[in-house]
């Protein structure tokens, strides 16, 4: 359960990071390219973190299911 909670919190943080960087992209329209590049890189990092946390959630769920099957 600890892995599940940690991964859920990580996925939520990644979603928030993506939202912040999307706002940054919208705010930097027409300004320096470096700001836009940084925001896009933040979005890619958030996407990767979100995917990794979802993989942990799935693995945690699968392991819990296997454990319950062994006890029954």
Layout: helices, strands, pairs:
Blueprint: H1 2-27, H2 33-71
Helix pairs in contact: 1-2
Structure description:
It contains 2 helices and no strands. By secondary structure, the chain is mostly helical. α1 (2-27) runs antiparallel to α2.
State the order of secondary-structure elements, H for helix, E for strand: HH
Mean pLDDT level? 87
Distance between the termini: 19 Å
Shape: rod-shaped
Fraction in beta strands: under 5%
Q: Which descriptors apply to this entry?
A:
mainly alpha, 72 residues, 2 helices
Describe this structure in a few short sentences.
With 72 residues, the chain is an all-alpha fold. It is built from 2 helices and no strands. The protein has helices at 2-27, 33-71.
